[in-house]
Amino acid sequence: MAKAMTLLWATGSCPCWRVMIALEEKNLQGYNQKLLSFDKMEHKSKEVLDINPRGQIPTFKHGDNVINESYAACFYLESQFKSQGTKLIPDGPAEQALMYQRMFEGLTFYEKLSKFAYYEWYVPEGERHESALKRNKEALVTELKLWESYLQKLGSGSYLAGPSFTLADVVVFPTVGALFGFGLSPERYPKLGEYYNLLKERPSVKASWPPHWLENPKDEDKLKDALKDI
């Protein structure tokens, strides 16, 4: 079945990482894949635009079915392959409700990280405003404290929706993984650090770990100075 799937992706992209973790969890290894470069603008190539007119990645296709939004692709994979691999949507209403809540809160978490990181990476120093830097930093700190409190309430060794690994972990862990990869302090956020250490050893996460982080570990900590006070 995986042979009928194609994924166009980029290393270090949290949305791409979500889909790759989901594919691993559903035992769908062996799908067709192509690594693209943002630097070379390959996400705007005809190959991508023919499948995804927004010119974004991931770009995912299963047979004739195209699902480019990462959350949608993860839902689709769980729906189509329920009995295969890891069960990613729990049956219990309480755990399922918490899973959905954390999943969609994860979009806000990723947005706060993106605003902070992109301002640091792409706005020239001479064009930066202290007010914008302060606002982005405070928004990210508030978000981090919120997720720290969520994990504190669940207790040690828990996943985001309880004792089981779910779609919430599939879609939110890449944001957590990126933050710690960029230099977030586990001493300041011990519960998030514990969660990161738990999931980074999971086979699906290890198999889909951004390859450029493995090839050049220093590339991970390019936000270290900006994150040192967070």
Automatic annotation (TrEMBL):
GO cellular component annotations of the record: mitochondrion
UniProt feature coiled coil, ranges: none
Superkingdom classification of source: Eukaryota
Organism: Astatotilapia calliptera
Protein name according to UniProt: Glutathione S-transferase rho
Gene3D superfamilies per UniProt: 1.20.1050.10, Glutaredoxin
Any GO BP: glutathione metabolic process
MF term (GO), any: maleylacetoacetate isomerase activity
A Pfam family it matches: GST_N_2
InterPro entries per the UniProt record, alphabetical: Glutathione-S-Trfase_C-like, Glutathione-S-Trfase_C_sf, Glutathione_S-Trfase, Glutathione_S-Trfase_N, GST_C, Thioredoxin-like_sf
Domain GST N-terminal: 3-85
Domain GST C-terminal: 92-225
